[in-house]
Amino acid sequence: MPVTMLDARTALLVVDLQKGIVRSAAADLSDDVPSMPEVLHRVRALIDAFRRHALPVVLINVAGGAPGRTDEPARFSGSLPEGFTDFVAELGQRPEDIVVTKRSWGAFANTDLDARLRAIDITQVVVCGVATGAGVEATARQAFEQGYNVTLAIDAMTDRRAVAHRYSIDSVFPRLGETGTAQDIVDLLDARNV
């Protein structure tokens, strides 16, 4: 079901579209999920629309992992390669963008994101980025649990695990908020300023 509304004070959360992740993920994506160029194009359309309407853009990167033990080896151990956390050029980062660095899957855990959004009266977030079943889903869950209205731009995200991508979109996201395409969201932003 497409997005039905956007609050007057909505922020865009762009999750983990950073050089170290985009480079590795782009090579591993299957044909069953949106390609990285498609995702970057749609995310940029969202960024441009939010900026055009003077709404906050939050760029989120990851610089480490949670410390707990897991069956799978940690993806982020030791020092990260040079430039790993730098945002990709396609985002067109600006000084006024809010930047949040996380060390877990979700952007609200152990960061000041909630306080920063509340300080500017944000009541809704639109979430996009990578990976659908990890950083995007965790951030959306945490936003929902913090009381934000959540919208997920389902064609502006991807995951190297097609099954995780589909499960998040089909089974998890409808329980956390509203879903729609990047164009649906841009159209809603533009319609309210006609």
TrEMBL record:
Which key words are in the record? Hydrolase
Q: What region holds the Isochorismatase-like domain? A: 10-184
Which InterPro entries does the annotation name?
Isochorismatase-like_dom (IPR000868), Isochorismatase-like_hydrls (IPR050272), Isochorismatase-like_sf (IPR036380)
Write down the superkingdom of origin: Bacteria
GO MF terms listed in the record are: hydrolase activity
Pfam families per the record? Isochorismatase (PF00857)
Q: Which CDD domains match?
A: cysteine_hydrolases
Q: What is this protein called?
A: Isochorismatase family protein
